[in-house]
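[Discussion] Sanity-checking designs against the backbone

I'm trying to build intuition for which residues belong where. Below is a structure token string of 103 positions. I'd appreciate it if someone posts a full sequence so I can compare it with mine line by line.
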């Protein structure tokens, strides 16, 4: 299991200087991705191509680079934001979650 990065707490987020590939908590990923916590949990638990994550005790961590690579596999999005491509991806995810509920 990879070790967790250490850094200073700044406004509720752990800042690791010079570390572009760090582990994010679910709440940090909510802020980074724009998805709700509930949507992220569904994406982490889906059957096909789930969002990669690590469970450490009762806490979950998601490596930022793995999230970015996973997101690119879901659709050709450079980085999640409010672009039309990102909104389209959100709609696709919502459709997938809703279709799974109907089964």
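Best answer:
Here's mine. Compare freely.
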């Amino acid at each position: 299991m990879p070790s967790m990065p250490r850094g200073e707490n700044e406004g509720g987020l752990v800042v690791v200087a010079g570390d572009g590939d760090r582990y994010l908590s679910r709440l940090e990923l909510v802020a980074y991705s724009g998805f709700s916590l509930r949507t992220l949990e569904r994406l982490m638990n889906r059957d096909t191509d789930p969002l990669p994550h690590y469970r450490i005790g009762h806490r979950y961590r998601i490596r930022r680079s793995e999230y970015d690579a996973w997101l690119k596999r879901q659709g050709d999005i450079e980085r999640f934001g409010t672009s039309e491509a990102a909104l389209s991806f959100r709609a696709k995810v919502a459709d997938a979650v809703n279709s799974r509920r109907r089964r």
